[in-house]
Amino acid sequence: MPSSLNPAEGSDGALYGTTFYGGSSNVGTVFKLNPDGSAYRVLHSFAGGGEGGNPSGVIEGSDGTLYGTAGSVVFRLNKDGNGYGIVADVPQPAQNCWKAAMAHFMAQRGPVALTATERRSS
User: Fold this and answer.
1) Which residues have a Cβ under 8 Å from the Cβ of 121 and sit 6 or more positions away?
2) Which domain holds residue 92?
3) Is the pLDDT of residue 1 over 90?
4) Which of 10, 31, 37, 48 is the most buried (most CB within 10 A)?
5) pLDDT-derived band of residue 61, with 50, 70 and 90 as boundaries?
6) CATH number of the domain bearing residue 71
7) What is the mean pLDDT of the chain?
8) Are 98 and 64 in contact (CB under 8 A)?
């Protein structure tokens, strides 16, 4: 399944990422797995519409919560898969670039010190 970004390593050492397609409505998921590839788990399956869909990656905030963009929304999700919520709407020009969408969110809500590093393939 296509993914917009490589998984992000969380403060717990697990990898968190998104799929653009897949899940119960085929509009993407947030997943978790161990660095060795074991313990793969879908944390959230997007429904589309107002909930968002086709996510573009996640990052971990200093509060330990995952944040990401999915279509026209910025969402939050606890690392155990609970607590999904929409924290901001994204203006149309920023929807195609998750970093621009997150910058818009940060400008509107103030800083959430982001602690996760983006895991890059070599």
Assistant:
1) 6
2) 8-110
3) no
4) 31
5) confident
6) 2.120.10.30
7) 78
8) no
